[in-house]
Write a structure and sequence with these properties.
Elements lengths: L1 H18 L30 E8 L12 H11 L3 E9 L9 H9 L2 E10 L2 E9 L5 E7 L5 E7 L3 E7 L4 H16 L4 E7 L8 H6 L3 E3 L17 E6 L6 E6 L8 H4 L5 E6 L14 E7 L12 H11 L3 E9 L9 H9 L2 E10 L2 E9 L5 E7 L6 E7 L4 E6 L4 H16 L5 E6 L8 H9 E3 L16 E6 L5 E7 L8 H4 L5 E6 L3
Parallel strand pairs: 1-2, 7-8, 13-14, 19-20
Antiparallel strand pairs: 1-12, 2-4, 3-4, 5-6, 6-7, 8-10, 9-10, 11-12, 13-24, 14-16, 15-16, 17-18, 18-19, 20-22, 21-22, 23-24
Helix pairs in contact: 2-3, 7-8, 9-10
């Protein structure tokens, strides 16, 4: 009985407290999430300066309901705002698709341009892969690939990159062979290459991916892409050629998207990758924080084809991606160059500052050497040096941490040695790391001239020929005074560039060295 009375009293206290609830301050609960299903938004915003590559096996636009619905497929594409779309299983004028050009239809609905690659003839039409893209490519092509059912790749080349859309064979041996062929093809472009599609392979440690990953980076999301609904396999991919390198911003498989039922649109989920937009400077990448100094002998911008082409030379200089470029063989307002200040024209094309040193008066103008630089120097100086048949010059620019000189040595050994001694004295006076770049007019590294070079200077540039044809000697150099140590992180001679023929632009190849600790 006593316990019963205690229990009744406890209940009375509880109800008394509850009856006072209306008088309590419940404001702290105002921002609590209400009970029930919440509205979730599925969007995939693209960052500024990104390039978005989307890949989608569209199953000839027939969804899992077996209804061909172009609006539905286009809604997925439009919702992702891609720059390039790689499509697989595309019909062109087939019976099952009611004689519709599917890729053109999707292009019209997305406001993009397009290119189709036929894999096989099918039902009175064609079946294959497609590309949708913004802008106009430099070139497009279809590359046929092996398979029990023949395969293909649709390829579009743009100014700074290449995109490949493909759907590989069901047979492993044909997938492996396709990877080899596509790798060889991709390398010929000397550009960033994105390859995307249905690879028909989910064994990441199998033969196909073991071979592929020797030359390609698998950069897409690790989420599964097939089939829609269960998504038990990862067979759709985006990969990039390792050289030139790319920077991946993000990647996702699109399971949900505002305004469209993705799962019913196809039997594959679409997949995208966002990349830092390529600039065309990826062919010879420079480490962050490094300083790049380059050299280029120009022959007054006249190529081996006999054409003076400032656009061609300017593109090469821009693609060098150098902080400082030393140039030799420059005309300034001469008759043969139609009164053009060549260095100034190149500076405008490269968006750099220009500094010229006259060697001689020539045909109503001047002929000499110069330097292009991204950063304005602390000081500049110009020196004239004796030559056997004509005067020579050196252009010197000083920065806070180092000094750079550009010159073109004489053909005479004694005059070369005399000029070298003069420059050593002048540059030593700066008491900081000193670099000398130019056309040394000597290919024998055991000569008396080079014995003097090697006694007081470090040879930094790559041990490669800089002469395009003929004897193909190493005539252009980057050296530094031994009095100050410098750390070279990379050195190369540029023999190939995308979009411009280096072998025609001049009789010499450009070269460069990268340094750490000088910025």
């Amino acid at each position: 009985m006593k316990n019963m009375i205690s229990y009744i009293c406890l209940l009375a206290t509880v109800f008394a407290n509850l009856s006072c609830a209306d008088d309590m301050d419940n404001s702290k609960f105002d921002n609590m999430i209400p009970y029930g299903k919440q509205e979730v938004s599925y969007t995939y915003p693209k960052g500024e300066g990104s390039l978005r590559v989307l890949t989608f096996n569209i199953r000839h636009c027939a969804g899992n309901d077996d209804v061909i619905n172009y609006d539905r497929t286009a809604a997925v594409i439009n919702g992702m705002e891609p720059d390039v779309v790689c499509l697989q299983e595309v019909d062109y004028m087939t019976t099952r698709s009611n004689k519709v050009d599917q890729l053109k239809t999707l292009a019209d609905k997305t406001g993009m341009n397009y290119y189709f690659s036929k894999s096989i003839a099918y039902q009175g039409g064609e079946y294959g892969n497609g590309l949708l893209f913004k802008g106009t490519p430099i070139s497009t092509k279809t590359y046929l690939l092996p398979g029990a059912e023949l395969r293909s790749a649709a390829i579009a080349e743009f100014e700074n990159y290449v995109v490949i859309s493909t759907h590989l064979a069901l047979e492993e041996n044909n997938r492996v062979e396709s990877a080899k062929q596509l790798t060889d093809l991709a390398k010929t472009y000397n550009k960033v290459v994105y390859m995307a599609g249905d690879f028909n392979e989910d064994l990441m440690n199998g033969t196909f991916f073991t071979e592929l990953k020797k030359e390609w980076e698998v950069v897409s999301s690790t989420e599964n892409t097939f089939p829609t609904g269960q998504a038990t396999k990862r067979i759709d991919f985006v990969v990039t050629l390792k050289t030139p390198p790319t920077i991946v911003v993000k990647s996702n498989v699109i399971y949900n998207l505002d305004g469209v039922n993705v799962a019913i649109t196809s039997d594959h989920y679409p997949l995208y990758c966002d990349f830092k937009k390529p600039t065309g400077l990826e062919e010879y990448p420079k480490a962050e924080g490094d300083l790049r100094i380059g050299n280029y002998f120009l022959t007054y911008c006249k190529g081996t084809d006999g054409v003076i082409d400032y656009d061609r030379t300017g593109r090469i200089i821009a693609k060098m991606n150098a902080d400082i470029v030393c140039l030799q063989g420059l005309d300034k307002e001469t008759e043969r160059s139609e009164g053009i200040d060549q260095l100034n024209v190149l500076a405008q094309k490269a968006n750099m500052h220009d500094y010229f040193a006259k060697a001689i008066d020539y045909k109503g103008g001047e002929f000499g050497v110069g330097i292009l630089t991204k950063e304005e120097p602390v000081s500049v100086d110009r020196y004239q040096m004796a030559g056997k048949s004509e005067m020579r010059a050196a252009m010197v620019v000083e920065y806070e941490k180092f000094v750079v000189a550009s010159t073109n040595f004489d053909t005479d050994m004694a005059k070369r040695i005399e000029a070298l001694q003069t420059l050593e004295t002048k540059l030593s006076a700066y008491n900081k790391p000193a670099f000398l770049l130019g056309y040394f007019n000597e290919g024998d590294l055991e000569s008396e001239f080079f014995q003097m070079v090697k006694s007081n200077w470090n040879l930094l540039s790559a041990d490669k020929s800089t002469e395009v044809s003929g004897k193909k000697r190493r005539l252009d150099f980057i050296v530094s005074l031994k009095s100050h140590n410098v750390n070279v992180t990379q050195a190369d001679v540029i023999e190939n560039l995308s979009g411009v023929d280096v072998t025609i632009a001049s009789t010499h190849y450009p070269l460069f060295c990268d340094f750490s600790g000088l910025k």
